[in-house]
Sequence to fold (822 residues):
Amino acid sequence: MVDKLAGKVLVAQGGGPTAVINQSLTGVVLEARKFPHITRVYGALHGVRGIIDEDFLDLTRETTHNLEAVALTPSSALLSTRDKPDRDYCHRMFEVLRAHGIHYFFYVGGNDSSDTLRIVNEEAEQAKYPLRCVHIPKTIDNDLMENDHCPGYGSAARFVAQAFGGVNLDNRALKGVYIGVVMGRHAGFLTAASCLARRFEDDGPHLIYVPERPFDLDRFLGDVDRTMKQYGRCIVAVSEGVTDASGQPIMTRLKPGMGQDAHGNVQLSGTGALGDALMDHVKDNLKLKRVRSDTFGYLQRSFVGCVSDRDAHEAREAAEKAVQFAMWDDIDGSVAIRRPVPNYSVDYELVPLKNVAGKTRHMDDAFLNEAGNGVTQAFYTYVRPLVGSGMFEPARLRAARVAPVIKGRSS
Amino acid sequence: MVDKLAGKVLVAQGGGPTAVINQSLTGVVLEARKFPHITRVYGALHGVRGIIDEDFLDLTRETTHNLEAVALTPSSALLSTRDKPDRDYCHRMFEVLRAHGIHYFFYVGGNDSSDTLRIVNEEAEQAKYPLRCVHIPKTIDNDLMENDHCPGYGSAARFVAQAFGGVNLDNRALKGVYIGVVMGRHAGFLTAASCLARRFEDDGPHLIYVPERPFDLDRFLGDVDRTMKQYGRCIVAVSEGVTDASGQPIMTRLKPGMGQDAHGNVQLSGTGALGDALMDHVKDNLKLKRVRSDTFGYLQRSFVGCVSDRDAHEAREAAEKAVQFAMWDDIDGSVAIRRPVPNYSVDYELVPLKNVAGKTRHMDDAFLNEAGNGVTQAFYTYVRPLVGSGMFEPARLRAARVAPVIKGRSS
Fold:
């Protein structure tokens, strides 16, 4: 057996929080603490920003009990950052890692975080400083290359399914048009998960629009109109990032100048503007009275008490595997989740950082219907296992109608 | 023992759905089916509208199994209505009830529904038609007179607490101002329940605004500014119905003309306009960059999988009691929930319909702090038992900070 490189482990979390991101944190800490050549396990506060600032917690001295309690808590326990490091920033990070004798760096994050890790990894190699860098996937957007699906997605998808499940029942009781705006700039996986709310034939969402297909305002009105005629109600799930055929955000088409900051950037999250604009568009054009819109916003990202058990287990296991790849195989990379058969098991592989770093995965064509307003059976097969066990199944009254008395008289 | 009036029972559901309203439906059906003098149990579809239309289901022929499954399903299984019956409408309802030999009418609803029932009850008395009318309370707003609290509120409060629980963790990871707009036109109970998200000293919501206190835009800015200076972040919970000191909706102060329909009515629910306007107001005046807003909208009303067990039990029991009052005591009225001691038991009383009908209860003064931006200990004592068991408690890392190496050198 070869001697292992003695030194410290650092773990950090980047980008938007998820419901299970602390499962990965706890997985790294508990697994790394098993190895005798690991002298300390540090956590950087506020992601890469904490490295620059030398803002570390000594997680070697955290109790297992509390680590397990933190694992069940949504949102980054090590706090997060939106810093997008350039090469100079990465170089300064690397200097701090060297000063602290950190030889293993685990970064839990999405596309941007994996790209940061790739650059840090290259800096270390050029300086001939031994630094194992392993990326642990995390994103509610589910848009990392090489992965069948990403930790964090299953729980957010469960929230979206449960939200539309309730909205469907509400809208059935008090009919009208309902538009739910779901997070997702470039990938529609999260919005598409709304399909799991459907149990009965007339259940919504009746229409699902994702960024992978151009959003045409006239076709949208036609879809809503047809659904209203068929069911007397219409539930729409739409990604915040939908664009027209030319790639322009729909918001700029509906309300030119609205929802943009001083630099002309369209703010997609943290505002109800798109939902309200779509609502007005339907009201004005179809002359419908009861049209409502909700923007799911931050609720879908770390709602307390909505976790997919499978997602939690995989977030933990992906982190354990990350440590094992670094310790036993002594290689860098990104942990990728594979699914050998649709229904259902997972394997973890380590793939080169460059295969994942800064890239975006989109929904497969096979997941979307031809009309561009719904999902296929293939997507149901894909998404159903990810939201975990114990999904609630709404029930309906099935008792027979009573024959009218007064109406009977007059006819 | 006196002979009981033989005849049919009718149950209906009115107004906005709740997560536990079908517990009350199932409670009425199962309890009423026990009595031999009850010939049928009917359910009216779409509330009072179903009475006018003679649109009844024969719930005598519904399975107990399915009734129990429906009880667990959020939102009105008998569907609902926003019809506000006038005296003529009530008279037509009464005619249908007579035509079908219905002698017991149970209506699950809020302020408006209890007022409808009061008028129907009076019509029947004038016509000397025997009709027991019992109102079963239901509202997420918790604003029915005579009640310590109302079925439906506990589950919605649980949703709001869990939503702010997640939002607090998210906002701690990525700091900024967050404004969450909660349902509530006249009563702030639901918004105030956000206080249950706080576990650690710096947890949000830091500011809570309810309709019972005038909302002053300048004081609001001062509150946010002070909180940002203290914690570097600020979470606000605000009722959709907040008004200025003169009773004007805040929306009309922030964006005159916006969010109003052709008749000048301000649409409060089903739009993100108030949240967005408050967000812009903070951004513009405090020159803060990261300000976000969510409007909880319909998610808080019937989100699948977020039920207070206590709320579910009480919704069931209030309905059972309603049937028992009608059958054994042969009286009309509204079932009211009392709480003999704060921590915790309930009694059910039947109070006159006129005590509840069309009236609105507001939060007690003792529940609100003097500054008008938060709740008191008394409110915690009040609300904590209502959200039920198994509330998640977030955990934090408590490991010690690591002494800096590079910063140490330079100092």
